[in-house]
Amino acid sequence: MRLPGALHAANEGLAFLLELAAIAALAWWGFTTGGNVLVNVVLGLGAPAAAIVLWGMFAAPRARFTIPLPLVLLVKAAVFGAGALAFHGVGHAAAAVAFAVTALLNTALATADRDAHFRAAAK
Predict the structure, then answer these.
(1) What is the chain's alpha carbon radius of gyration, rounded to the nearest angstrom?
(2) For the segment 25-46, what is each residue's pLDDT rounded down to a tens digit?
(3) Distance CA 110, CA 102 (A)
């Protein structure tokens, strides 16, 4: 299913906002979850940094390494899942569910759209 131009652009924009939200949620969780300041700083900087590196290496549109689609989806699930868990970890269960559902639908639409685009280009 190929998305019309405006819907494609909106879905890509939403994907970027979801990536930023996952990073922000991981930082929020990290800075507030530890038992002391040092742990908070390490988690607050380390968790989002790990997500950024993982995303940039394997899931970004211009990822450093090209991997098969199932592995890209696994990386996205890990980052978005961690973001949802981070929202839950800071006491926002409803936001965690909303984030997870939105990320799942966005990723499914983007995957179907890209698949249709590549099938059309191969003809």
Answers:
(1) 16
(2) 999 999 999 789 999 999 999 9
(3) 12
